[in-house]
Amino acid sequence: MTVRADEVAHHHRTPWFVKGKSGVVRRVHGAFPNPESRAHGGSGMPKRRLCQVEFRQSDIWGPKYRGRADDVLLADIFEQWLEPVPRG
Amino acid sequence: MSSDHRHPPLLHADRSVRATRVLAIRQLLIDKGVVTAAEVDDVVARSRARTPADGAKVVARAWTDDAFRGRLLADARAAAREQGYRLSHDADLVVVENTAEVHHLIVCTLCSCYPTSLLGQPPDWYKSFAYRQRAVIEPRAVLREFGLELPAAMHLRVVDSTADVRYLVLPRRPPGTEGMSQDDLAGLVTRDSMIGVAEAHRPEGGRCACRGTS
Question: Which chain A residues have a beta carbon less than 8 Å from that of B161?
């Protein structure tokens, strides 16, 4: 999946450094109240699925990353931020 | 607000701006009926009652009880409840296991999410901007500064607890601990080893190398 690269003004739980990056969903934690609604006085409903996504560190930081090529970062990303990886 | 409504004084010469703000927000939430003072006190008391010794007991049991270890890795919330620890808020708990091939490091880059139900309050460095940024950008250098030189062959997985799940590391059981009791083993499990910035202590001369966890 690819993380949407949107810059949004409201509260959200998607770190800037994975926006626009592609990774693999390793587990689905279940559904949680949506923090993007809850942080602004909303109910958080409907709940959204929270996915643990694995990114290669070298895909996030490029050649700046000093470590093994297979080192990874796992981040929990709400489903509304995930899109299928574009083909091609 | 009614005129007979009395507050403890918010402004105090020895109180920081931040502490004053926190107290003001607390008072507003109480005044508006969102929470009661007793509820706030209860949450603070429960949070303060937890220390890394609680997490250490869970780790020590996982080291000595394979079936429990399996349950802990599959459903940490249920396994913690088995040990008498109830997770106090909505957040879920996931335990990740360090092995001879894989090392996990936990960070919350967005704020300071932490498995308080098993470790109590996070250390100040965990909440610092420096740790929260560097743990993802240069985790091996951060680990080196904590005194942990990862072997080049070790696969490093940094876990960023960005949302509703808290993470706890199940550190590797140190060599030379065969036959030790769960209590003695728990004495080797440090807070830092459950965050992933250190390994569990090794026993020294057959005695546990317990050190303070603050």
Answer: 76
Low-confidence ranges of chain B (pLDDT < 70): 1-10, 88-90, 205-214
Tell me the pTM: 0.86
Q: Is A73 on the interface with B (CB under 8 A)?
A: yes
**A63, B9, B94 from B23: Cα distances, Å:** 46, 10, 32
- The pLDDT assigned to B214 comes to 41
Note if B208 is an active site residue: no
What residues contact residue A16 under an 8 Å CB cut-off, 6+ apart?
A: none
**ipTM score here?**
0.94
Question: CB count, 10 Å around CB of B196?
Answer: 28
| Cα B138 from Cα B121, distance rounded (Å) | 25
* A43 inside 8 A of chain B by CB: no
No. of helices (H) and no. of strands (E), chain A: 2, 5
CB B114 within 8 A of CB B90: no
**Among B113, B161, B193, B208, which one carries the catalytic annotation?**
B113
CB within 8 Å of B163: residues ≥ 6 apart: A13, A32, A35, A50, A76, A77, A78
